[in-house]
Amino acid sequence: MTKICFFATNYDHTRQKLIDYYEHVLSKKAELFLFCKDSEIEKYHNKSFIKYGYSGSKLTLPFKLRKFCKDNNIDILVGFSGAGEVSAVLVFATLLTRTKYIAHIHGNFFWKSKDIGDFRFFVYTLQYNLKSSFFIISQFFAKRLLLCSETMTYKLRRLFFLNKHKIEYVPSVIETDFYRPKDKLKSRKNLGLKSKDKILLYVGRVSYLKGSDWLIKLIKRNTDKKFVLVGALKTRQLEKEHFKNVIFVQSAAGETLVDYYNAADIFLFLSRTEGNPLALREAMACGLPSIALDIESLSSLKPVIKLPRRIDILQQKIVEFFNLSKKEKKKISDKSRKFILKEYSPDVWNKKYKSYFLNFN
Q1: Has this prediction a pTM greater than 0.85?
Q2: Which residues pair with 202 in a beta bridge?
């Protein structure tokens, strides 16, 4: 069997979901390995993976990974997390060996800073793009470059035109049988939410890059509505302020998370930059209408209401949405669900995943 090793820099809920799907689609055709931090190895609960934990400095990491691949006769090394500088580690680990290197990029690639007045994001953009520049070299060593977003795939093919034959669009899938529409009133009852409340849902890390400043402004402008925030708080202002219209949920998974998607009236996605976000597409799979900032990687998510980075327009659209009739809201809901079924369900991508990871003829 083909031996595939996945290299992870840090554990988080999104990476766990990615590993779950890799396991589901590849375990019958390949022997799977996971190379991750020693302190995080127990967090991954996948039974089909042979897990190896590394420790020590970043300087020794490339040598340890190279030795691991050699000792275990790894056929394919996959980098599926971390920024561009991780590619340098993977290139070194596979250089002049039998191991092939695949980059599965789940984030954005070369950020764009549209808002000139947002100096903080401009600095983040410069820093991240400097890290991404490592891909300019590693593209020549990678066997394949797999992108999670259609927009980013087209963009990379233009930038890396010499290797465009290596670049493919391979998004993370959405388990559409699990993330599904449910009865709203029952979901609210399960979560202890009031049936008459107007609920706006946010799922993910609450931080500056995820648009916490816009979120706070919306919370202040909509005191007649409930904001349910599911995820870790990384913004001090939200921790200090005692908003009466906010419900904080540190984490939610499984059917509980599905209930939150179904209990809400609308989903808010305010990230300044993103790849092809899981939470947004999970919400859409549950039939939840969604509002997002208009960033380049979301252009292919057609049912999403995409808006410019202006708080007044965001506020206006929220007011307009809650004034829609049930029939109009249902139309948006159905369109969102159908889109995810067509574009991101496992049935659409299972064979393609196997081909991209196992077929090198």
Answers
A1: yes
A2: 229
Residue 127: pLDDT band with limits 50, 70, 90: confident
Rounded CA gap, 302 and 222, in Å?
A: 26
Dihedrals φ, ψ of 38, to 5°? Answer: -60, -35
- Fold of the 184-344 domain: Rossmann fold (3.40.50)
Question: What is the per-residue pLDDT across 288-336, written as a single tens digit (0 to 9) for each?
Answer: 999 999 988 888 899 999 999 889 999 999 999 999 999 999 999 999 9
Q: Dihedral (C-alpha) 43, 49, 54, 58: value to the nearest 10 degrees? A: -90
Note whether 357 and 4 are within 8 A (CB): yes
**Per-residue CA distances from 117 to 121, 122, 126, 208 (Å):** 9, 9, 15, 15
Q: Which fold has domain 2-173+346-358?
A: Rossmann fold (3.40.50)
- Residue range(s) of every CATH 3.40.50.2000 domain in the chain: 2-173+346-358, 184-344
Instruction: Give the SS3 label for residue 35.
Output: strand
Could you read off the pLDDT of 98-119 as tens digits, one per residue? 999 999 988 887 787 666 568 8
Helix (H), strand (E) at residue 125: helix 119-132
